[in-house]
Amino acid sequence: MDLSTAWADAPITVVLDHSVLSEVWADMANTSLPSWISRAPHNLGSRGHGKLKADQWRTACQVNLVITLCRLWGHPGASSREQALLHNYLSLVIAVHWATTRSTSEQHIELVEQHLVYYVQSTLELFGSRALVFNNHASFHIPECLRAFGPAHGWWAFPFERYNGILQRFNTNSRVGMCTNVQIGTKTTNSSNR
């Protein structure tokens, strides 16, 4: 059986259903965050909040979901599936945390490798081959990049993604070289005068 057949035949699994999201929203309302952490939208997971920024994703995944999922699925009375889902998710959070620290060491890199391997293996056990995506493969290259290039903040692509977002806001009316006013930061410039 090829992968496309496996994807077509596999049932769709919903993990963060409305009952879980309701708990996340309630916990978010009761959580105080330091001023330097961007808040995730209060209606996280619904269509109404629009596209999340990287900082909002980080807060939602590394703070809000960790708080709620540990409370819901981390107690002794939780089902074995819920506990397996929690361990799966926390392994991803730990891998991301150690992969994105401002300094790195061989110990950090080994933690990233161990947790990425566990995350992918447990994802396959929980959800089957349908859950495999290209990013799972690409994540296994992060440890070698950390060894070769140092801390991820020195080589990740977030600044370029921000500039792509700025460029996408330019109104060209499909005319190359004929831009109108665009707001960058707090300063409005007329790009046709450049």
Concise account of the structure shown:
The protein contains 8 helices and 2 strands. With 194 residues, it is mainly alpha-helical.
Task: Supply the number of structural domains.
Answer: 2
Stretches where pLDDT is under 50 for at least 5 consecutive residues are none
- Round the Cα radius of gyration to an integer and report it: 21 Å
> Structural class from helices and strands?
mainly alpha
Order of helices and strands: HHHHHHHHEE
Instruction: Give the overall form.
Output: globular
State the major sheet: 2 strands, antiparallel
Description:
This protein is mostly helical. The protein has 2 domains: 3-154, no CATH class; 158-193, no CATH class. 55% of the residues lie in helices and 4% in strands. It contains 8 helices and 2 strands; from the N terminus they run ααααααααββ. The chain has a two-stranded antiparallel ribbon with strand order 1-2. Strand 1 (181-184) and strand 2 form a beta hairpin. It is globular. The termini are far apart. The mean pLDDT is 84.
